[in-house]
Amino acid sequence: MQDIDSNMARVIDFTLRSFQEPLRLSQIASIAVMSVSSFCYHFKKWTNRTYIDYLNEVRVNNARYLLIETTKSVSEIAYECGYNSKSQFHRQFSKKEKKTPLQYRIAHQYQ
User: Fold this and answer.
1) Scanning 77, 85, 88, 98, which has its CA 20 to 30 A from the CA of 20?
2) Which of 11, 105, 19, 111 is nearest to 62 (CA)?
3) b/e string for 11-31 if b means 16 or more Cβ within 10 A?
4) Domain ranges of the chain
5) HEC profile of 43-56
6) Angle at 96 between CA 93 and CA 97, to 5 degrees
7) Which CATH architecture is the domain 55-107 placed in?
């Protein structure tokens, strides 16, 4: 179990440093020194969510910060957070926040 803990810690560290880049499950599994299916199983058991859900959470958290603290456009923020398209970013952000990135920015503008 200690090996799995250290492997998952490496994955988390790598993800936090690299979330802005395109990441593939095969790449992440190799960091964990596991097959893709084994990694997916152990990551979900270790975190109670899939790796893709975790990655989207990291990206959306960064987007929240950038929407509030910068004047960058939503498109710039989408690509800076690692999304391949603005529509993909909107879909993931809206799923987590129940509002669009622009609605989120406006709601937090004066707080």
Assistant:
1) 98
2) 19
3) beeebeebbeeebebeebbeb
4) 2-48, 55-107
5) HHHHHCCCHHHHHH
6) 80
7) Orthogonal Bundle (1.10)
pTM: 0.91
Would you state the pLDDT for residue 25?
96
pLDDT for 109:
81
- Do residues 59 and 92 touch, judged by C-beta distance below 8 A? yes
Question: What are the angstrom distances between the C-alpha of 84 and each of 24, 77, 107, 110?
Answer: 13, 11, 25, 30
Residue labelled with tokens 């109670």: 48
Report the SS3 class of residue 40.
helix
* 45, 10 Cβ separation under 8 angstroms: no
pLDDT tens per residue across span 10-58: 999 999 999 999 999 999 999 999 999 999 999 999 999 999 999 999 9
pLDDT for residue 34: 94
pLDDT band for 2, please (50, 70, 90 cuts).
Answer: low
